[in-house]
Amino acid sequence: MASHFTSNCFLMAARVMLLLGLIVVNLDMTGAQSVGVCYGMLGNNLPPASEVIGLYKANNINRMRLYDPNQAALQALRGSNIEVMLGVPNSDLQSLATNPDNARSWVQRNVLNFWPSVKFKYIAVGNEVNPVGGSSWLAQYVLPAIQNVYQAIRAQGLHDRIKVSTAIDTTLIGVSYPPSQGSFRNDVRQYLDPIIGYLVYANAPIFANVYPYFSYKGNPRDISLPYALFTSPSVQVWDNGRGYQNLFDAMMDSLYAALDATRIGNVEVVLSESGWPSDGDFGATYDNARTYLSNLIRHVKGGTPRRSGRAIETYLFAIFDENQKNPELEKHFGVFYPNKQKKYDFNFGGKREWDITAEYNGTLSLNSDM
């Protein structure tokens, strides 16, 4: 009788331990994703692509933004399990927009030839094309290029696995304060609204490059450094019952509001670039960059006041300092030095399962500033 009771207790305990084990594994699977990092190549002292992929893996960086289909990088990504946002350079937009065969060839050469050993997640068709200004002549090609690339992906039955979009910057926003009144500039709506309509149709996110650094640099009188770095000790802006303790949330929520104000449909936002330079201009210091980036990594897991609790998929700019970029501050956005040494002492947000469990038990905060 006693041995039977002991045996039953043992079996029950084993089942409980197994259940708990499954819960821990599940938490790890859903919570351990790191932020991505953009892989720029405008330097003459950067390591070969194979070593760069090794650097991503060694530092638990599971997502990469690649600005063009560099063949060495794509070869090195085979079997790496790194999710890739692949860019169509602005210089290719006209060709892909005006000839669907060119888009099909581009997709075959740079995506299908590597799929599925390379885990493509997104294709970013163009970067920061603006219908007003220096790149305005390209604007007419962005949506047709997106559509032709999408059709090439769809023809292979991959349109639910590889989303096609474009990357915008915050200069397209005309009203950003207060965040709830965010709206796009009237002179970009004719360009942007059809793109948003396509994204709703294709169930694809819009990519956004968002840099509190440049807003702070452009207006340090009204924007405090702590507000820009996530270190403000209290709410700085109240807007319709929402409290803003950092500039990043205000910028993101003005973008969300601008998207909502179009009334075209719901579009998610992927933060395709954000960073802070460590040298080269006003406010560009090592300490400021480290503070911004480490806080950003923690903060994006919790969303913004307008989209609270919804993690923001985020790509840091960039993996290396790139010495062939201009102006000077553009050379200092790297999170690693070209010799592959870490510039900063933070990790990239991936967590061991015991960290996730501790977070689940409430002993760790998801947000650095809440």
TrEMBL record:
InterPro entries: GH, Glyco_hydro_17, Glyco_hydro_17_plant. The keyword Signal applies. Keywords: Glycosidase, Hydrolase, Signal. It catalyses: Hydrolysis of (1->3)-beta-D-glucosidic linkages in (1->3)-beta-D-glucans. GO terms for biological process: carbohydrate metabolic process. It holds the Pfam family Glyco_hydro_17. Belongs to the glycosyl hydrolase 17 family. This is glucan endo-1,3-beta-D-glucosidase.
